[in-house]
Amino acid sequence: EVDLEERLHELDLRSDSDIPDVPPPTDSTPEILKRALSGLSARWKNWWIRGILSLAMISGFFLIIYLGSFMLMLLVLSIQVKCYHEIITIGYRVYHSYDLPWFRSLSWYFLLCVNYFFYGETVADYFATFVQRREQLQFLIRYHRFISFALYLTGFCMFVLSLVKKHYRLQFYMFAWTHVTLLITVTQSHLVIQNLFEGMIWFLVPISSVICNDITAYIFGFFFGRTPLIKLSPKKTWEGFIGGFFSTVVFGFIFSYFLAQHQYFVCPVEYNSETNRFVTECEPSELFQIKKYSVPPLLQAVLGWETVNMYPFQMHSFALSTFASLIGPFGGFFASGFKRAFKIKDFADTIPGHGGIMDRFDCQYLMATFVHVYITSFIRGPNPSKLLKQLLILQPEQQLSVYKTLKSHLVEKGILQPSLRG
User: What transmembrane ranges does the database entry give (predicted)?
Assistant: First the structure.
């Protein structure tokens, strides 16, 4: 025990340059692929492995879309947990913190606490009718924030009690590492689900745009790349960056046109308490109804069209695709800088040729925040349906008070006739 304390104390005093290397991930490529591609150079072998696995993941993604919004939510939750595991594991390895008392358990405890808070907020916001019918849930929702705070406070006190003399700084390193990881993974995945509730199209177009940009930038860079883009990612080139931008904008415009035609993709996801299922049925909003637009004079000469019919959402898809291709990659650059700081190639070896789950979703988290901000800033207005659900939860005397106040306001505005005052 004394030897362990001395070793941890020495490690605690090291500078960043003395941080030990993390062991490189093992090669998880299936043997059948290794044998089939054995005659190729390393460059082309990686190309084929990445291509085959990309097609497999995209096919699986389409299957989950077919299974519905609930399965997509489970997918987001699974990815969040795996990304958290990959990042937190690097911290364990770098700081040799496996032997610190309680810390491994506390890291996962904090993940459960934060998820409990965010998903409880979602249940209270979107499933009010369902909660109203079950007394035990009413108690949990009524005191949800207090319970969440109490759970976190328990973990906080456990951390303080676990502090070991001479190793305080190392333990606070890992405490901070855990909370930054929670901020990156849990908060962003919650925003992804919030976007999904606005309509599956707000989930699919941004995610698909990032995937398209990642694939097309890799293809353009592989075949035409000559000019380095950024030192953090030596393999990234200007040719790939520019080619990915134009490809992503075109893809987003076409893909959104296809999705905007179907209620399944454009309607907000709502929970039907009678059937206990998620439903996507509605009268599509103006964003998803064909409109005629005048073509700018400069383009009229080129295209030969004076007007064009399109969905208003396609204009928004241009903004989403632009962000995915110009700003989204900076999430990848950030991840590259993180990996270089700790001398690792990938976050893990979960997906052959791609690295870990976090390697594939480093840009998605940045995209999720942008979409959420974009929707709240430019799209979403007051939601009468959500407000009505909240009113139905109130006590009868509270509902009557709201009714009288609203009636008085409408009379003052001249919307209701004075004869209806009584």
Answer: 47-79, 100-119, 139-161, 173-193, 199-225, 237-260, 313-335
Q: Per-residue DSSP letters for 274-291?
A: TTTEEE------GGGS-E
Angle at 110 between CA 17 and CA 179, to 5 degrees: 35
Give yes or no: residues 399 and 334 share one domain.
Answer: no
181 backbone dihedrals φ, ψ, rounded to 5°: -65, -40
Residues 217, 128: Cα–Cα separation, whole Å? 44
Q: pLDDT, tens digit, for every residue of 147-202?
A: 999 999 999 999 999 888 877 888 888 899 999 999 989 988 999 998 998 899 99
The tally of domains found in the chain comes to 2
pTM comes to 0.80
Query: Per the domain annotation, does 351 fall within a domain?
Result: yes
Reading the block at residue 205, the tokens are: 């177009």
Could you tell me where the beta strands, DSSP code E, fall in 269-345? 270-272, 277-279, 291-294, 307-310
- The per-residue pLDDT for 345 is 78
CB 352 within 8 A of CB 30: yes
Confirm whether 401 is domain-assigned.
yes
pLDDT under 50: residue ranges of the chain: 1-2, 13-17, 420-422
Task: For residues 289 and 281, give the distance between their C-alpha atoms in angstroms, rounded to a whole number.
Answer: 15
Q: Are residues 169 and 234 in the same domain?
A: yes
User: Crossing angle for the helix pair 144-162 and 168-182, nearest 10 degrees?
Assistant: 150
129 within domain boundaries: no
